[in-house]
Fold:
Amino acid sequence: MKLSAVRIGKRWLGVLAIVLAIVVWEVIAAGIVRNAFILPSPVDVAYAFQELAETGRLIPDFIDSLIHFGIGLAMALIVGIPLGILMGWSRRCDAFLDPVVELLRPIPPLAWIPFAIIWFGLTAYSAGFVIFVGAVFPVIINTYSGFRSVPRIFVEAGIMLGCTSNVRQIRYIAFPSALPSVASGIRIACGVGWMCLVAAELFGVSNNGLGMSLWLYYNLHRMDCVVVYMILLGLTGLAFDMAFRHYVEKRFLKWRTGEVA
Amino acid sequence: MASLEIKNLNQSFSRDDGSRLVVLDNINLEVKDKEFVCILGSSGCGKTTLLRLIAGLDEAQEGSIIIDGEEIKGQNPKVGMVFQEYSLFPWRTVIDNIAFGLEMKGLGKEERYRVAERYLDLVNLTQFRDSYPSELSGGMRQRVAVVRALTLDPVLLLMDEPFGALDAQTRNMLQKELLDIWEETKKTVVFITHSVDEAVYLSDRIIVITPRPGRICRVFDVGLSRPRDRTSVEFAQVRRTVLDVISQNCSIQ
Structure:
């Protein structure tokens, strides 16, 4: 009983902080700055949200952004997980691929935008490509380190039970053992990919999109609408992260509760 | 017929400075069918190396290992192994751990669960069927590990100090249970330990190995009837004989 009382108390503490932040923002914007172009107040933003909702462009914005993000993340998983597995499982593959990966990794994803346009044109795929570049490396690195740290004893126990081929050892032993690390790589990739979204939509690959609209309203000097898109981007990213954690941990990583980390 | 024959086995590792470290020196051993043999030795005497060679996890440099009339190269389905550390797959439930070998063999879900449940029953862990290893005590985990190694019906069961990490009471209990399982399934067992008490309690024969280089120093026939009473005079006598010989002839330099 006491525990849940404390938990509720803590939750309200968090809500209180958010309310306070909004109040402070309102005071500064409406009382001190008094210029909706430089700093729109929460009230301005609320009206802007209502206005945008009435235009009906928020849903298409969402859908287009999800398509860009989905393309990028899916490609990152399709390319990153097998690469990470190869490099983590075979020393030879690691020695072969590691230099290339390490050379490409420090190039900022946004530096790929010119080639994204040349290769894929102004399509959803070029936005997806930029997101892919941001998301693929966390997937590779975490899959790699998960496979590298598979305890030898599990592999040997498997061998004694007839799990002798490489493919089977990867599928039945290394992959499940590495899954927590792979999952956290995907989570990081989601975060990085989402961050790349705004820039990926900047160069006009679509008529809609959260990032695209953010730039559009900036050009129209509607900073209140820009803030609406900023908040939507933030909340969507948060929702992804929470849904992912909730789903993956309940579904795939149940065995880890009670394991000593 | 002998379940296990080891002939002129030699094994050495090269050290960083280029010299050779002889780990096993001319090991010859014969284990009869359904015999329970303990290999007794201090840590570093090469007993785990010997077991890994028998298991086919490492390859012998010299000599031969014959299991059930067949010289082995690499892993052999006739051999089951229980490891010293916890080796259950933490991402699989108890039943799926036990059924792993059967799954690798290609058995359908229903059939492998049927077999696995029988083994689960053998160690009285039916109520933990769907638990994960992290939810079990150390003793329960090793019980599961023992039956997991038995599911493929091996001729030879290798055990590498399987109860070494357990407390004394649990250990005694598991030793007794192991003997019950052995009586029931009648496997040939090669059991590694550094505890004289454990060796005398469990085995038909005790093989004492001395380190650097690993050599068979002495072989004892225990010759006590089962069930054995640790507190009996006869038990104490065998223990003393073994301990005396170890300290006089098989001492560690």
About this structure: Residues 205 and 221 of chain B are 5 Å apart (CA to CA). The beta strands of chain B are 2-14, 20-32, 36-40, 62-67, 70-71, 79-82, 156-160, 188-193, 205-210, 215-221. Residues 88-153 of chain B form one domain. Chain B touches chain A through 28 residues (CB under 8 Å).
